[in-house]
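I'm curious: can you give me some protein's one-letter sequence along with its backbone structure tokens because I've never seen that pairing?
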Amino acid sequence: MSSSGAKQYYWCLLHHRVETEENACAAVDRLGPYGSAGEAERALDRVRERNETWDAEDARWSGDEA
């Protein structure tokens, strides 16, 4: 468990599933930690949303807005 005592969850990029600290794959193969299994399940959605936001910011910065 984490030092705070709260259980942590990860999204495994290899197995496409939620994992806990007890059964988590190597850090290079996972996203997290997250505070709940539900948050971990939505990890790829959050990545996609952030990438879209950053891409739009990059386009504005460089003057390439469509």
